[in-house]
Design a protein that fits this description.
Blueprint lengths: L10 E6 L5 H17 L4 E3 L2 E5 H7 L13 E5 L6 H4 L1 E2 L2 E2 L3 E7 L6 H13 L3 E6 L15 H6 L3 H20 L4 E3 L10 E5 L8 H15 L1 H4 L8 E10 L3 E10 L1 E3 L3 E4 L6 E4 L2 E5 L11 E4 L1 E3 L2 E6 L11 E5 L4 H16 L7 E5 L2 H13 L4 E6 L4 H8 L8 E5 L5 H7 L5 E5 L2 H16 L1
Parallel strand pairs: 1-4, 1-7, 7-8, 8-10, 9-10, 21-22, 21-23, 23-24
Antiparallel strand pairs: 2-3, 3-4, 5-6, 11-12, 11-20, 12-19, 13-18, 14-15, 14-20, 16-17, 16-19
Helix pairs in contact: 2-7, 11-12
The structure holds guanosine-5'-diphosphate (GDP) and magnesium ion.
Length: about 450
């Protein structure tokens, strides 16, 4: 039976407002494992870091738990940005199995915190809240790398109270967004309550607790999602397109199912027709011990999910981040290409003959924007990836309905010739990096126009 229980490594995404500590937490998770003298065990991937289960349970001082968990570890996506989550798409949803929402305990919720939570709610992704920067709480006595409970015991009553007050405020904010939550050590049922873990990404306090809760969530809620078969054709998502010296255009991919081999035919999403090409090389980062070597990457013959890998192959120039990569068999590449194209068209094709025009920086963020606008019953005439161009302006200028003579741009800028053109037009442009703000601004504007 044990064989059937093979689960792949859950993929974890770190989300939250800028400067609240996403990068620091990832650095800490990596650094901690290295400091623990287990540098060999932690695996650096392209675009991700894998922390094996034994490091996590040891770090938590509970090595006996190693047999309790059946996931092999956790794979943290290394592109922390508040769009990483939506940009990492998989068929029918988000790529990440789990998330950490990080919030500065001294600042509380900010727009991107709220946006992150709304996204997680829509995708029903299990997550934990990291209340970061507890070391900045006045009077905090630092206990580097210790679990939260241990460090908390060493604090004065004042500090303990202050922490609880702050957590209570977070509980209130979460409640407003439809989540019941509690300090994690008071949560009895993680299915009903979100755990809030006070941490310091700077000192490492509470970081072990976060890892442990993520393991628990994976085990409890994801078992069926994580079951996988290495014999399946490899399936992944394009994280980034990168030019590499001597390799040409490469794609960094997170593989979340099956196996990918050198020489495989793959189909990769693109704005036009999907690309059908052959894997020339599969590349992994060199281990730290080989850092002196000239070449940054090490070539391997095959990789199995979940893993981050760089693919070198011809014709990848037009690959699109956030789209699918799938291994094709001897005769089904065209069929897969058609499927990938249809998936993309569900996001980019106009939903109505009239409506607003939208632009976003990635296919994933465009999808998020389409979803939110649809929920608000705001029709979309045209949806595209990229900065606002001269052509966008010309097209929108031809729309007669003033409420739809509008461009909503999410996380994009306006190209200079578009800027010039817009001065001589009646078009209204909304630009920003928070979806719900953009939508509120548009709705407010429409309301004003109607008055
Ligand atoms: P990101 O924008 O969410 O990736 O945030 P960063 O990880 O870049 O952190 C923003 C700033 O906060 C940096 O100057 C960090 O050194 C600092 N910072 C992050 N976590 C902590 C923490 O736990 N304690 C303290 N004192 N500073 C922190
Ligand atoms: Mg950062």
């Amino acid at each position: 039976m044990a064989e059937n229980k093979k689960l792949r490594t859950p993929i974890v995404c770190v989300m939250g407002h800028v400067d609240h500590g996403k990068t620091s937490l990832l650095d800490k998770i990596r650094g901690t494992a290295v400091v623990a003298g287990e540098a060999g065990a932690i695996t650096q991937h392209i675009g991700a870091t894998e922390v094996p289960i034994d490091i996590i349970v040891n770090k938590c001082g509970q090595p006996q738990l190693i047999n309790k968990f059946i996931v092999p570890g956790l794979l943290f996506i290394d592109t922390p940005g508040h769009h990483a989550f939506t940009s990492l798409r998989s068929r029918g949803g988000a790529l990440a199995d789990l998330a950490i929402v990080i919030v500065d305990i001294n600042e509380g919720f900010m727009p991107q915190t709220i946006e992150s939570l709304q996204i997680l709610k829509r995708f029903k992704t299990p997550f934990v809240v990291a209340a970061n920067k507890i070391d900045r709480i006045p009077g905090w006595r630092t206990n580097p790398e210790k679990p939260f409970a241990e460090s908390f015991k060493n604090q004065s009553e004042n500090v303990q109270q202050l922490i609880d007050t702050r957590i209570y405020e977070l509980v209130g904010e979460l409640y407003k967004l439809g989540f019941n939550s509690e300090r994690y050590d008071r949560v009895t049922d993680f299915q009903k309550n979100v755990g809030i873990v006070p941490i310091s990404a700077a000192t490492g306090e509470g970081v072990a607790d976060i890892l442990m809760i993520l393991l628990g969530l994976a085990q409890k809620f994801l078992e069926s999602n994580l079951r996988f078969d290495a014999n399946n054709p490899g399936t992944g998502t394009v994280l980034e397109i990168k030019e590499e010296k001597g390799l040409g255009t490469t794609i960094d991919v997170i593989l979340y199912d099956g196996t990918l081999k050198k020489g495989d035919t793959i189909v990769v999403g693109s704005l036009g027709n999907p690309i059908i090409t052959k894997v020339r090389a599969l590349l992994k980062p060199r281990p730290l011990t080989e850092i002196q070597t000239e070449e940054k990457f090490k070539s391997v013959n095959e990789v199995t999910a979940a893993i981050g890998v760089k693919i070198a192959a011809p014709s990848l120039e037009k690959a699109l981040a956030g789209t699918a990569v799938r291994v094709a068999g001897s005769d089904n590449a065209d069929e897969i290409a058609k499927e990938i194209k249809t998936e993309l068209e569900q996001v980019t094709l106009p939903t109505g003959s009239t409506g607003v025009a939208i632009k976003a920086d990635t296919i994933g963020s465009l999808e998020a924007l389409v979803n939110e606008l649809t929920k608000e019953e705001i029709p979309i005439r045209k949806a595209g990836v990229g900065d606002i161009s001269h052509r966008d302006i010309v097209e929108v200028a031809a729309i007669e309905d003033p409420y739809y003579s509008v461009i909503i741009g999410f996380n994009v800028s306006m190209l200079p010739d578009a800027r010039e053109k817009i001065q001589s037009s009646e078009i209204k442009v909304f630009m920003g990096n928070i979806i719900y703000r953009l939508i509120d601004d548009y709705k407010d504007w429409v309301k004003k126009q109607k008055e």
